Predict the structure.
Amino acid sequence: MAAATTNRITSAGLVPGLHRSEIMVCQSADNLNSRGGSWIGKDLLSYTIPLVFAQLIIIFIITRTIFFLLRPLKQSMITAYLISGIMIGQTVLGRIREFSDLLFPIEGRMVLETLGELGFMLHLFILGVNTDATMVKRAGRNEILIGTSCFVLPYVLGGLVVYTMPHIIFIDEVTQHCLIFISIMSAISSFPVITTLLADLNLLNSEVGRTATTSSMVCDFCSYFASLIMGFLGISKRFTRMGVFLSIAWAVATLTLVVIAVRPVILLIGRRIPENGSMRETQFLAIVVLALLCGLVAEILGQPAGLGTFILGIAVPDGPPLGSNLVSKLDVFCTGVLLPAKFAVSGMDIDLLLAGTGTTTAIIEFIIVLGYVGKFTGTFIPAVYTGFSVSDATSLSLIMCCKGIIEIAVFITLKENAMITSEALALLLGTMLIVTGTATPLVCYLYDPSMRYLGYRTNSILHSDPHTELRMLVCVHNEEDVPTLMNLLDITCPGRHRPLSVSVLTLTELKGRADALLFSGTSFVRGSNKVNGIGIKPSKNTPADRIANTFHAFRMRHHGAAAVEIFTSVAPYASMHDDICTISLEKGANIVIVPYHKRVSFNGDLAANVPAIRMVNQNVLQKAPCSVGVLVDRGKVAENQAIRLGVTLLRVTMLFFGGPDDREALAYCSRMADHTHASLTLVWVRKTADKYPSNLDDHEKDIDAELVHKFRSTHAGNDRISFKEEFATDAVDTTRVLRALKGHCELCILGRYHDPKSELILGITEWTECPELGVIGDMLATTDFKFSVLVVQQLPQGTAMEHCHTFEPMGSSSRHSQSSEVSKQYSARSYIEPLKL
């Protein structure tokens, strides 16, 4: 049959193919570039290059539009790719002859399909780079049980039904052949698909997310092992024993070549990339060429090219600097532009309307649904057995039932190799869209990782005995955060009569890997000079090692008075707060110290270093189960290194306006009062008219007054402790008090929340830039002030104390818990007695 348009010099016809009759297209060799033919009336889309450009643009617009519409339903980009491919295909737009002939003619498929395969191959390489195959070694007993069960149960259940069903009802040979592969595919839970879904839902570093990540890796290994056996069995039926031996030999040779020859080259390239730098162009091109070479070798051995690149990707070290550089350079273009073309071309042959209502359709759909039921059950039962709640086990089971790009690619490959029919492909994709599309919003509704710590409240500083151990969690994003934190900890640890337990959490953004990490690093115990009982390990001079060594030095300076434990979190910024809150809950922290998202620039102003850190701080302030301190570092505390040598005093000022947050800040300052190298000034700002701030009721006024007087009487006669009482009538007087602090302190400590209706700050709230610091804290963080600021919050705003539960940290004694004080409503006595100033 000849082409319909006169400008398109093409012809097409049916020829015998490998599995069925296929369409062969003959096209003019000069039909590549239009060379301005549109100016003389020629059809621009009859040329290859303009047609491909138009196709990519249309696919991109349709895909992004669908993704935008589906975002409120928590759907992934892969779902949008699949739906756009189906829409372009015969199900929707492909039925419009004018549309398909104009933009997606037969002769325009080959180039688009080649670009799509290239994008898919490189996307698999990216997925391989993000994959850490050694995760299986770290899998615990629970993850192995869940991962194995969620594969074996649907695999065995589907196989038994497929084997017994032909003995019950009549099934034609083609359908029976399809059911075998459908039952096998139902057991797969792909690691890249699960981790991508968890990243979209911000659940990578949650408890359910980590279990799903490791379990999917175990399930992947089970499916690879089963497919390997099935493949060799299939080869043995078609070929001689020598053919089977050669097939196995070539597969082993390919893996050996990647591990022995290619991986050392990649590791050598990775070692030459700076720690926080980017890779050179020659290094990037060398790895891309190696990826193409592995794809070529896979094609020569009769395997898909994507399999070769995926294996190479696994051989590439994940994470920075190599893995993160590769992902950042390849991901956007390959995944955003080329990959949708793969689904568009595949969707042209998919017609969901082929799914009829006959017996064959019902049988195929029954096997598909049975596979999902088996996978859900195979995950749910062992999850409940290993200690998950019913709600969390349901969420985990729904996650493991989700399928994505790997399964879609396998479905399409099975269809192209005539292993399943077009009807089976339509049913598989349609059911996958329904299950995955329903599961993701259900998981968001059922599972909130913050619920494990939102309902609990660890001891605040105010309610803890000052002579017991103060438990602090300090968060470090990079080495610049360490000096100020070190001096802050130094003046917080006056001696053995007030011991300090510090948990250090090093936070790193997840880059170039698929799974989030949270692990305990080097643990230092009070009174011990050994690390984990085997002595101090030599430093490798990495940033993490230098941070750990610095806090080890702090522990040695306060020998017997301080304990330090190091943790490392590798997670996306969107869910990094989960690790912070989890560690604070498990360690029973009294306060969490997080760095401010702005740093001092070269001209002395504060500038945003990593804006995403602000989101982390906001989430911690909102969800933390304990008090939170936001440290605005201007270098003044870090510069005062002499406090460690006892040469000079670190001048600290406490601003007290009243309220729960200011009381918590004062309780923290009381920990510094006995330190010989710190001077403390308490500035009580009061309203002139009635001697008390108008934003507090009488009960709160009594609490504030008694607490301040208790502090004064306790430290009377201490020349390092001073007290000032400032009276103000409005925000102007408050500003005057704040400006008087210039040049008189290196660190100012205050509470976060103050009533915005108070006359003392009325009008200032309109200029607040960073609400996470509070009204006064935000003002002190402006360029008018040069000292560092610590803003303390006692409870997330809006959290009622009577609705919180107490939490007894693991391994802590009863003296570390004030559950009776926390569980009851606050009273004046309950605020004063536990502090014992």
